[in-house]
Each structure stands twice: as C-alpha cells, then as structure tokens.
Design a protein that fits this description.
The protein has 370 residues and is of the alpha/beta class. 38% of the residues lie in helices and 18% in strands. The longest helix is centred in the C-terminal third of the chain and has 19 residues.
Length: 370
Amino acid sequence: MSYESTAEPIKVGYLFDFRLPDGFPPAMRDDLTRPFELVFGEAVRQKLLDRPVEILIREVEGLPKGSVKAVIDAYGELVDEGCLVVLGPNITDNCVPTREAIEERFLVPAISVTGSDDWLGEWTFAFPQGSLTDEPIFWADLLVKAGHTTVGVLMEQSLVGETYVRHFQAACRRRGLRIVAQEVVPQTAKDVAGAVKKLHDAQPDAVVHAGFGFGILFVNPALEALGWDPPRYTSTAFQNAWVNPAMWNGFLGWTGVDQYDEHNLVGQRFLDRYREEVGRRPEYCVPVVYHDVANTLLQAFTDAHPLSPRGVKEALERVKMLPAAAGAPGTRVSFGKWTRRAWMGAGYLVARRLDPDGVNSHLVTRFGEE
C-alpha cells in the first residue's frame, strides 16, 4: 500500500505597476516571466522544491500615468490570494507609498527593481536595476574619464528625477564638474525643445538626462533640429530602449547604465540554457536580472521554516553570496538582517551604448574599474 500526496503550490505575486505599451514585443513580455519558470521548474525536477511555484500576475497603471491607489489595491489582491512574496512594484513613485502600506497592513515581503533607497525596509528588498544614489556617481566618473568639465542636465519632474539630480550635484562638486544649465522636463513623452535649446545656449561639454526615461523620447529630435550632437549620458532608463523601436531611437547616441555584461559567465551559461529551452538567446538585461531574482527566491523557499510570509522574509535575510548572472563578472547577491540591497560590488552596473543597427549594444565601461 502506498500513500502519495500533492502539495499546494507556492504562490508568488508579480505586480506590474505600469501597463505594457501597445506593440510591446511578445518575446520581451515572455522574458519577464520565463526566467522564473526555468529556475523554479528545474528546482522541482531536481527535488530541491517539493511543490511547484505559481506566479500570479497583476498589471495596473501606477504613476506616472496612473495612481498609487491602483498599485496598493493590486498588492492587496495578491496578498488575499495567498502570495508569500510579491515582485513589485518597481517604479519609485509607486514604491515609496506602497512600502508604507506593506508595513502597516500587509506584512508580506516584496522584492523590487527600484533604485530608491526609500523603498528599503523590514519587508521590502531590492534588486536595484539601477540606483538613484549610485548612478549619479557613475555619471560623474564617465564625464571625468571622457575629459569633460561642464555638463547640462535635463531633469524629469518627478521623485526619480529630483533624487538623481540632488546626488548628481554632490558628485559633480566632488569631481570638479560644473553644471552650467539645468532644465526641468515632463516625466511623460512631451515636447522638450525649449529645455534642450536652453542647454544648447549654455554650451556644456556634455548632457545628462535624469529620470525614469519617458522624458527622453523627444530629446534626440530636438538636438537634431539644433544641429547639436553633444556626448550624452543617461540612467538605467537606458534599459527601456528594448521596449520598442521608438524608445530605441530615443536612446541612440546615448551612453546609459545597464546590467548586461557579455563577459559574465554565470549570465552567459543561463542564456545558453535559455536558448536550449526557449529557442532564442535574448542578450540584454531582463533575463539575467530575473534569473538572479528567481534564484534568490528559490534559496529562500528551500530555507523558509515555516513557509509563510514571515518565514520567507527571514529566509531572504539568510541568502548570501550567490553568484549573479547580472552585472560584471564577480557580482554576487547577498541579503542580511539589515541588508536589503541584493547585488554586491560596483560592477553590478555597467555602461553601454546602443548600436545604430537597432538590434545590438556594446559595453563602454565597467564601474569600479580604474
């Protein structure tokens, strides 16, 4: 006589706090979830997990186009459905108020790719797909290495833009750079010709854009109208270039902050496996970033006793020095009781530039390499 049992799945919430745009490539939508399927599916086959993992998705329009309320309500729905952890929200303007609701009402851990330190708390962990405090330091490093002494700034009118610029101003003072013009632009895609003209009139050596990224969409046409082609740098907004051709064209000519490094062998081995199972090899940041998130959750699920929201939260704190697929070679993932930022080492971010072919990008430099 034999007795077999089946266990209920571990439920993971996946909260998109923005609606993916029309024309968003189906393959890229697949890349947002497929790494979790690969990592968790392999763990079940290897009996590292005694039950499957079920991903519950909510897609709502938070800020900048929607509302914080929609994001918090969606988080609550995922909690009510039994999720032990939620991935998201990810936009800083939504993350900060949602963190308050998590701590006051939900008490279910969340992992975000936001770059805001204000997200970090007892229940809120980050795989910062960029950092509002680190990136401005990297911009200053890039400018100095390129021999620039003056810079003009386009700041999106948002919490993201304001935080970036506050830290960039400090980094410029430390590195001897002078900001000769600073103009505010909308955080959504609107006309920016006037702001770009004011930067042009100040004649900086280079231009920096600070924001979530939608505000950059019409900068290149404004530069072209002026016959001006300055060196230009931006944040991890650069990663939005993969969303659609319009965004790619918006970032052409810009050096941006990214997390894909073709010399990271952990990431390359994962992409080899991705090709074997999916039939294509997406060589950009999203698959390797979400590999690291999934692998971290796997470690936490196998170490959570009990398998509850608090158990998962405490198990996340015990994740240490996992080799990362994202970032430069040698990047690791670690959390701790008072450590809520996952990737360790300056090389978790790199600088890349888009190629005019509309398909590829190339590595410019790794941060931390002198």
